[in-house]
Structure prediction request, 180 residues.
Amino acid sequence: MDFIKKYQDRRRQRFQRLYERHKRLRKLLKEHGEDILNSTNFKSTRAHIQHGTMTVHNHCMDVARYSLLLNRKFRLHCNKHDLIRGALLHDYFLYDWHDKEYLSQRKRLHGFHHPMTALRNAEKEYQLNDIQREIIKKHMWPLSVVPPVCREAWVVTAADKYCSFMETVGLHKGHGAKAS
Prediction:
């Protein structure tokens, strides 16, 4: 019985630590990205699928969270404000890239071109600094050819690759697109 009680206590403590971590992450996202999170265009990303069943909205939220976790875990001392805003806006392309009609009209490869579309869209709505622009522009490296030059862009690129892989293989699952 003593073993079961210890196991339950460890499990309760683990869940408490996870809850506290998620609470801190939500607070940081709200503190540095509230204007983005509340914008109509960002909310509209709930209507588009990114990878598997994950929406673009949830993907961007996950990338922001994992970017913060990587920054903390490896003590990279990234600017949290830039890291969060760049991560939230890295896929701000505002269209359904799975739409065959869209793809046939554009005749482009989404993976190569969406960073610049996301950057143009973000610059229309938000005041971006050079680091935030770098994050959005270079998050698809090596497809973007020129590698990122700041820590924040490298962190978001790594978090994006991780989240994209987990979504594509079905280990991170969303709830599908929702009407905005």
Observations:
- The mean pLDDT is 86.
- Residues 63 and 162 are 8 Å apart (CA to CA).
- The chain has eight helices and two strands.
